[in-house]
Amino acid sequence: MKYGARNQIKGRVKSVKKGDIMSLVKFEVAAPVEMASVLTTESVDELKLKIGDEVQLIIKAIHVLPIKK
Amino acid sequence: MKYGARNQIKGRVKSVKKGDIMSLVKFEVAAPVEMASVLTTESVDELKLKIGDEVQLIIKAIHVLPIKK
Amino acid sequence: MKYGARNQIKGRVKSVKKGDIMSLVKFEVAAPVEMASVLTTESVDELKLKIGDEVQLIIKAIHVLPIKK
Amino acid sequence: MKYGARNQIKGRVKSVKKGDIMSLVKFEVAAPVEMASVLTTESVDELKLKIGDEVQLIIKAIHVLPIKK
Amino acid sequence: MKYGARNQIKGRVKSVKKGDIMSLVKFEVAAPVEMASVLTTESVDELKLKIGDEVQLIIKAIHVLPIKK
Amino acid sequence: MKYGARNQIKGRVKSVKKGDIMSLVKFEVAAPVEMASVLTTESVDELKLKIGDEVQLIIKAIHVLPIKK
Description:
6 copies of one chain form a homohexamer.
Chain A: E1 2-3, E2 7-18, E3 22-29, E4 33-40, H1 41-47, E5 54-59, E6 65-68
Antiparallel strand pairs in A: 2-3
């Protein structure tokens, strides 16, 4: 299986909280990972992003898709 | 600063590839991290997600928002 | 009305399940449809996507926007 | 493989248009499909969505994730 | 036309910058608007969001869908 | 703090409606604001977007990220 997405991270389920329609699941990610972001070139220029910069990567939980064998 | 998102991950810029409108930036994430996913309860049931399960977390790069001090 | 999105699919409501804040609605899509994906060129290369390839298209339900006359 | 997403549609690549950072890929979907949307209950009420209603489903191409074996 | 989305904002095109695959369009929004966010209840609690709080609303440009008559 | 997103809008919380997993928060946005959209160049051409055009900007509430000091 090959996925058309830059971020593919191995995790282990830590908790499952079920709601009426939506549920919240948390995962432990053990290994160091590489992550990728696509943003406008305007934003890259405004943030002056360059190699070595420390950043915080924010991802709404709704955008994380779990896949299980 | 407090962010209304479950995933807040520290990273360091590894590469920046600028395009005409969009750019692709890669980050190194060192520490063990916790990640969260919100999905339908139907999907949780279908995947039978339970504590300890190994999963792959897929995130399109477009959904990763870098923040820099 | 013209929409700034590549995917515009006709459907018919099959079920509505209401929750406290979010609801899950299902639709029947009858006709053959065309769908489009935007992904990184890196992902296209990694998947070696070419005409005729069979793929599975995954879309989180949260990204589907219904419009009604 | 089980995916934590409600929409899993079989398609066949029709065209690939590569750009510097992002690419646009189009697919043919032959079979009738079921699609699902998650939206606020407020929106469901405002649209008065009920079984049998005809709607248009709008999805930005960026939210479509292709997977290939 | 009724849209299954909480945010429906009137704007006027200020600039269009076309790229190979993606384009960046900017809009002027004149009137005061109401905006809505859906986030996890956990995040609401962590931010201690209450009436009157001043916040910044961050939206990646990729999530803004223009519609034109 | 610099955010890798084109839309950064000041708002004030008007209402908070908490659900089991997800919550819906509404904001008042006072000042005139600029907004940006990234869409395919194909969509820009189809909509014939040009300076001065009046449009409606649709954003699902799930894509709005509140940040609080």
